[in-house]
Specification:
Layout (H helix, E strand, L loop, with lengths): L3 H14 L10 H12 L4 E5 L5 E5 L11 E6 L4 E8 L2 E7 L11 E5 L4 E10 L6 E7 L11 E4 L9 E3 L2 E4 L2 H17 L8 E6 L7 H9 L7 E9 L11 E3 L9 H17 L6 E3 L7 H7 L3 E9 L5 E2 L1 H5 L6 E2 L2 E4 H17 L8 H12 L6
Parallel strand pairs: 3-12, 3-13, 13-16, 14-15
Antiparallel strand pairs: 1-2, 2-12, 4-5, 4-9, 5-8, 6-7, 6-9, 7-8, 10-11, 11-19, 14-16, 17-18
Helix pairs in contact: 1-3, 3-8, 5-8
Length: 382
């Protein structure tokens, strides 16, 4: 577990990064923050592939280091608006991501340009537009400086102080998936000076919210080593059976698939053994079928991949999703939120994975099955 000083630093990174505007294809502010972070650590190397996905690897090469690369991955975008036309006080924007239609009605927006931020309000929605939903918004004031390509995001109630950590919860614009980006950076910062950890790197993908575009491009371009193992990090909608505060989640699958069994099982076994030694450590093992994860995309192209996630409140900034869809409550938007303890647990879990996966002192699941057969086969001869 990271010491308290490191945890406080990680929490500040959470506040900083999850507050930045981002959208599919418009991740520049996040990329710049990460590039500045990496430039302050001389033993790390930052590269991009042809799709603009970001790789952070370690410069050192340890003698005898033959472990397969372990990439911790997260995506850099969040559902958001992108300005496509500006005519006086009226803007046209496309929405890149998944949010139910009622949440757009008369929605208050913040348009973030290079020079300043300005408020706007949605006056029309074309929910059937392709490839993305389109809205017309009217600016609250002079739109001088607003340009095509600027990002828009939902604007919350005036008394909502964002971002903030309150009663153990982080409330911010984009926990999904920027809290996971911070977790990945935190882990690498802890491991980059430790012996035997040079195989650990990071992969940050673009445009996940519009169909894993960055991840799929990386697979097609073969920019990921084929023998690499991928642990994809997500913030997934919390349900009654996956509560916020009960620890990070070893996600065994999603709405479309189950993840690579051996890697998923190895991580679950690591967590089980760790919890026996440290009973206060909390973690969950769940399917999380509310959405689809990049681990499915990577697995489809033959990579060993699985997912760890944080249970998330106000998924994609939608409050009371089920009641709104059922027509029982009016649609309201608000900050996403996660448990800070769950976040620190995810960092701890990832450190354990880096240190313990394929440990020669821990028998594999296959070896355990072989032992069960050896010990109990005699009953078949009775």
């Amino acid at each position: 577990m990271a010491h308290q000083g490191a945890q406080r630093t990680h929490e500040q990174w959470l506040l900083d990064l999850t507050n930045l505007p981002t959208a599919a294809g418009r991740e520049a502010r996040i990329l710049a923050w990460i590039a500045a972070w990496a430039s302050r650590r001389r033993n790390l190397s930052l590269t991009k592939d042809r799709a603009g996905n970001l790789f952070i690897t370690q410069r050192r090469h340890e003698q005898g280091g033959s472990r397969a690369p372990l990439f911790i991955t997260a995506h850099l975008d969040h559902p958001g608006f992108v300005v496509t036309a500006a005519r006086g006080s009226q803007l046209e924007l496309e929405f890149r991501g998944s949010v139910h239609d009622p949440y757009f009605q008369d929605a208050s927006l913040e348009i973030v340009s290079a020079r300043r931020s300005v408020g706007a309000r949605v006056v029309a929605l074309d929910a059937k537009a392709k490839p993305f939903k389109r809205v017309i918004a009217r600016l609250d004031e002079d739109g001088d400086g607003v340009q095509i390509g600027d990002i828009g995001r939902f604007r919350f109630a005036a008394d909502e102080r964002i971002p903030r950590i309150d009663a153990g919860l982080l409330h911010s614009y984009a926990c999904d998936d920027l809290a996971a980006v911070v977790a990945a950076l935190s882990v690498l910062d802890l491991l980059r000076m430790r012996a035997g950890m040079s195989h650990v790197g990071l992969l940050f993908t673009r445009a996940e919210e519009v169909g894993f575009v960055g991840a799929l491009a990386a697979c097609k371009a073969r920019s990921i080593p084929k023998r690499a193992r991928l642990i994809c990090l997500e913030n997934s909608r919390s349900f009654a059976e996956s509560p916020i505060g009960d620890g990070p989640i070893v996600r065994v699958g999603d709405r479309m698939s189950v993840f690579e069994p051996s890697l998923t099982n190895d991580i679950a076994l690591l967590m089980t053994e760790h919890q026996k030694k440290h009973p206060a450590f909390r973690w969950q093992r769940k399917l999380m079928p509310g959405g689809t994860c990049e681990a499915t995309a990577f697995s489809t192209y033959g990579y060993r991949s699985t997912c760890l996630c944080l249970p998330l409140g106000n998924y994609h900034n939608m409050i009371d999703i089920d009641q709104v869809v059922a027509g029982q409550r009016p649609a309201r938007v608000g900050p996403e939120y996660i448990s800070v303890a769950d976040f620190h647990g995810l960092v701890e879990l990832l450190v354990l994975c880096a240190e313990g996966l394929e440990s020669p002192t821990r028998p594999s699941l296959h070896a355990r099955m072989e032992q069960l057969l050896h010990d109990n086969r005699h009953v078949l001869d009775e």
